[in-house]
Amino acid sequence: MTSLILQVASSQLPPNSFAPFMIYMIVKMLVVFTVYLVGVAMLTLAERKISAWIQDRHGPNRVGKGWLQPAADGLKNIMKEETYPAQANKPLFILAPMLAFIPALLTWAVLPFAAPMPLPWGRMDMVFADLPIGFLYILALSSLGVYGIVLAGWSSNNKYALLGGLRSSAQMVSYEVAMGLSTIPVLLLAGNVTMNSIIAQQAVQGWNVLLLTIAFIIFLIAAFAETNRLPFDLPEAESELITGYHTEYSAMKFSMFFIAEYANMVTASALMVTLFFGGWDIPFTLWDNLAPYTVAKSLLTLGFFLFKVLFFLFFFMWIRWTLPRFRYDQLMSLGWKLMLPLALIYIVIVAFGVLALDAVGMPRDRWYGAPLITLNVVLLVVLFLVLDRGRLVSPASHRARVEELDRLRARRSRSTLKTGTEG
Amino acid sequence: MAIGIKVMHRPVEEVSYLRATLSGLGHTFKHLIDPHKVTLQYPEEKWPLSPRWRGTHRMLTTEDGKAKCVACGLCPTVCPSNCIKLVPGEDEQGNRYPLVFEIDEFRCIFCGYCQEVCPEEAIHVGRHYENAEYSRDGFVYDLERLMAQTHPVCEMWDPSDEKGQ
Fold first, then answer.
1. Which residues is B90 bridged to in the sheet?
2. Would the pLDDT of A418 be above 60?
3. Chain B residues with beta carbon closer than 8 angstroms to that of A394
């Protein structure tokens, strides 16, 4: 019976009948979904542990030496009472946590996480759907995440939640622009929007983080804003908005927002790895990218992919426990007045660079990246040493005119209501 | 009346947010890998208490297991919060002993006067702080309970020996 459905096929080619394809798909879905959700749960533990270590504490170490803490938290949240605020829009109130969570999961449909695995019934591609529009699909879905937060803020009938929702919509729209523009240089180099061609390009020419460093920096910062992580967690700024959009949520619905935040982090990390760190590519070698595929190759590349994603997840947490939150106007001015122009200028520079390299007849092989790397080093020096002089993130006084500042200071010295000592 | 606006002077031309961020990351990473942690693992580890710590009471006993108290009535007299209830009794030999000796630990302010005033060194405040009961009545300690306590007792401050040596 099994042999009828699962025809033995060439292990290097995709399965030639429908049944093995479906079975592969279901197995991949189950495995990835399970690993993803367990991983997200463990991330909550990792966050607490890393925050503790950074602050010279031990972190959770009671429930099963700390390892069972996520299970205990989950159990607690399931047992707790679900409360609904008076006058809340109940359908939207229930819908919002789902909307926050689902786009993060859906993004995984197009992310390749290992080299294809040869099996007796045909090759198993380690991606759910290698969509021809792969990359655009991700951009489209990651914008959907904002709906969960905005609807949560609005349907709660709470002023703090509403403000959090408003902030998040403004923030996400602002940084979406910079994020989208920062990925155009990647597309310029890859010449295609499918994830596999982006990875193949990086395997040949070197990782995009070296070739397109500025684009990576912009993408990284925008990813922090998109996932609502510190230093851009203004939608849930505790000091001003209690907890922003999820103020009114309790029990498992709150937990859904929590999970959604970590799921978004995983997705953003995987995206960064795929676009700028070569996806599942093993650096300095080409054998892992070329046929014939083997199971060992597949597992090894999977390991590399996981390692890179875990590094970025750690980086997200590391940043969170290092930087304080931005002020709202700093966030907006950084997004619109710095990241957006920088991304646009960078697109022009890279476009001209690619044009020039093609004009001199440079083949798109492993040395293609060398001139681009040189270009990036120059641009980085400009960015770090010239541009970043109190202009990237500035105190409020910096934007006021000099005479205005003097007038404010003079008024203060006359005032009887002093608000502290002059710095 | 204009309200003063605090305008901080910051040397914005000299600072770099990116480089400051990198140095901050380096600093937090140093703490991340630093094996020295400051947390005290409470139920397993405890800070040492001061020898003068005044906690819940304890009644010392003689060798034959009786309370040292002679029901002289000094401690209820001196007690500023009036939390000691003492009913004296007398046996056939004419020795006084407490029929009822109760301390309401909720009323007690842990001044330690009872210990200081006691001529028999019977009642002591203890070096102990982990108290929990299911009801408020549980905090009225009777004589039996006071005698059953085993925790170390307070060493009172002595003016002639200021450092408690």
1. B96
2. no
3. 12
Q: How many CA atoms lie within 13 A of A397 on its CB side?
A: 17
Q: Which among B9, B29, B37 has CB closest to A318?
A: B29
Query: Which runs of consecutive H residues, i.e. helices, occur in A55-124?
Result: 69-79, 90-106
Residues of A with CB under 8 A from a CB of B: 50, 53-58, 318-319, 321-323, 383-385, 388-395, 397-398, 400, 405, 408-409, 411-420, 422-423
Residue pLDDT, tens place only, A363-380: 777 777 777 788 888 888
- Burial category of A363 from C-beta neighbours within 10 Å (exposed 0-12, middle 13-18, buried 19 and up): exposed
Q: Across residues A250-269, what is the average pLDDT?
A: 86
SS (H, E, C) A282-351: CCCCCCCCCCCCCHHHHHHHHHHHHHHHHHHHHHHHHHHCCCCCCCHHHHHHHHHHHHHHHHHHHHHHHH
**Max Cα separation, chain B?**
94
Domain contains A53: no
Distance from CA of A305 to the nearest CA of B (A): 23
The verdict on residue A202 lying in a domain is yes
Contact A408 B5 (CB under 8 A): yes
Which residue, among B14, B17, B42, would best test binding to A if mutated, counting the most A CBs under 10 Å from its CB?
B17
pLDDT higher than threshold 60 for residue A416: no
The shortest CB-CB distance from A56 to any of B6, B13, B38 is to: B38
Distance from C-alpha of A415 to C-alpha of B1, rounded to nearest angstrom:
7
- A210 in Cβ contact with A189 (< 8 Å): no
Number of domains in chain A: 1
Task: Report d(CA B155, CA B164) in Å as an integer.
Answer: 8
Amino acid at position B38, single letter: V
Q: How many CB atoms are located within 10 Å of the residue A288 CB?
A: 19
Those residues of chain B that have pLDDT short of 50 are: 1
Structural domains of chain B in order of their starting residue, each with its CATH number: 55-148 (3.30.70.3270)
Query: Does residue A351 lie in a domain region?
Result: yes
Inter-chain residue contact B31 with A409, CB threshold 8 Å = no
The nearest alpha carbon in chain B to A51 belongs to: B32
Calculate how close chain B gets to A363, using CA atoms only, in Å: 35
Task: Quote ipTM for the complex.
Answer: 0.71
Q: Which of A262, A226, A299, A275 is nearest to A36 (CA)?
A: A262
Residue bearing the bigger pLDDT, A52 or A125: A52
Tokens of A255: 């937990």
Residue A325 per-residue DSSP state: P
